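seq as requested:
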Amino acid sequence: MSSGATEPSRLARLAALPAARPWHVAVGSVAIGLALAGAAPAWSLGAAAVAFTLLASCRALSLGVLCAVLVLSGAALGEVRLAALDRAATLVSDGRTVELRAHLLTPPRPSAFGSSAEIEVSGGRLRGGRLLVRVPRWERLPAGAGVGAELVLRGRLRRPRSPPDGSFDFAAHLRRRGVAGELLLDGARATGRRRGGVAGLLDGMRGRAQQAVAAGLPPRQAALERGMVLGQDEAIAAAVREDFRDSGLAHLLAVSGQNVMLLVALAMPLLALAGLGPRARGVALLGLVAVYVPLAGAGPSLQRAGVMGAAGIAAMTLSRPSSRWYALLLAAAATLALNPRAWEEPGWQLSFAAVIGILTVGVPLARVLVRAGEGLVSGALPAALARGVAEGAAITLAATLATAPLLAHHFGSVPLAGLPANLLALPAVAPAMWLGMVKAAFGLIAPALPAADWAAAALGLPTRLPVAYIGRLAEVFADLPNGQASLPLGSSAGVAAAYALVGLGALAVRRAAHRLAPRGPELAAAWRRRPHAQRTAAASAVLAAIVLLVAAWFGPAAPPEALTVRFLDVGQGDATLIQHPDGSAVLFDGGPPEGGVARLLRKAGVRRLTLVVATHASRDHHGGLLEVLDRFEVGTLLDGGDRTTDPGFRALLARAARERVPALSATAPMTLHAGGLEIRILSPPPRGPGPPPEDPNPRAVVAIVSAGSFDLLLSADAESPTLLPLELPEVEAMKVPHHGSSDPGLPELLERARPQLAAIEVGPNTYGHPAPETLGALDGAGTRVYRTDRDGTVTLTVAGEEMRVETED
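struct tokens:
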């Protein structure tokens, strides 16, 4: 009888909820309307009809009418905003040559083909429009031109294009960001002026904060700290960003609600010590949030956090009851009012999904775990530590579950290592953030207090430890063999189904918890009656079992048990790793700096490299080797620079000297041994005095790597004019020269070498690699061909006379 009476009362409470929370419903209606801007009118009309019907069925007829009107009004306002955002896009004509004045909005971000940066046009027909400037390698933006600088740019306009193969839609991404088109840069000069007004003031504050945050830190840690505190990740290497993503720690580099929460937690006691009353503290906190959000880039996640934080502070200051759900709905409406397409961005979706997961699952789960922890570890662990671990585990688990379907949809995998990585990162996150925020504050007051610069630099020393610890965690957990679960969800229906499963699972756990709740106090009391020694031993045993299970599941990759050749996918570049079962490892080239070769080496189980070969001075070959020297112990560096004056290659040699890595000049003939590997250098021959040749490719290192009866031909970018005069043996495998470029002598080379397998190390490029003639020659020779641009890293395992190939794609 009682259970039958409970269900109607629960339904009655649900039906009465909209009328009890009219502001929630109204703000949510506006957000829905804004999100529907740009869709067919039928969607807005349908949403308004559904809102009216649902509220009318809950006996809230007036509220239903109001919310239907708000949905339609939100959609209309969104259409007006979209028209303003898209005005400049209608004026971009493909191929039109222009000269325009603009303000630099973002620092240049390096890429394989140069760099790119966003600008805002300050005059002419495109005034107010945002463009993405494509800077080729042979061009540069003016030295010292920081964010806010006025530039005169010459180039060709281009409308963003969507890829025909259905891969990442970069054009849609730019459109969502309000970028009207691209400018292919031909030349640039600085006018010496900067933008003024509030934007100019923020530019100056941001520049001082950035310098102060980085002060006293090594470059790698400075880049991480700027990303964590200010959201400026352009200086973070692409491989490091991938480490954070694969380890589940990417949210630390996306300034978000955690930053706002920590800022308020840092400022509250300081404002109280300053003698400010509650209302004055609230006003000061609102001011801090209002400054911090634009200072840190005001991305969708931070906009959401800023609005939610401001709503909570306002409620506290006015002694009003606060509602996290109302703050979340208000944040959705505010971010969509700025950009109605914001909801299409993965960052926006992940940010809101994480908060919803924390509110629906994390908060109640934290209460359950804290109660369980108080009973189970009472006397075995400090209460504050147990509470912190329980709350951290609950929030992390809830956010992970809530974002997993979206991560699978957008990135094709879910970081299983995220929970332990985030728990281990907890002790370091707050110190790293707080120290960075204090350093930024010193930078802001430096014009009035010169000693502040010194103080910011002095704080660099204590900041190093937590930042380096977090960076190391990301590196370790990103490399774990089972750290990511491949889970591609390609459709919206798949995402919806995944969320339905997550919701059903959460409901099942909640019901189970309710059933077990009555026995909780009894079990906790029985546990507390146990002797202290027994409780400590039991807690230690459980902790040890968890550690062993995690270690077994996420154990580090071991070196291969058979001879293994990996043609590494570093994009448009070369990097070939040869590993012998005796533990020896040899690396030929490291790809471009953004190729992430060090990360690929770690995933392959490399701990030490016996030999590193820099085949010649070319960014897409030697660029990644600086990172290799930083991250790995290297026995010997074989220098194929041919006495080059290339600054990048000279920096590589200087780094080797600082790391005390012996360097040998690569001149043929030469034979080296690395454990069970024999490396015969066939080219280049010695050359006389004088400057190096303008084209380094023909004198790149050509080598035969042998182990037993297996021979591998590696020729970097040296093509048939260099290779055919050499005494080449027949080989089992080869790397196709120069990324598969057109080479008329390749058929003769294949006839002589007779490789069974050939790998083309190539990535997206504008050079036409690999050339159709090259692919035709390989096909005609009957050689099995693999390409890193299609197959990912190609792994060749040699066991006796058998060769086995594995690809990533």
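The chain has 28 helices and 23 strands.
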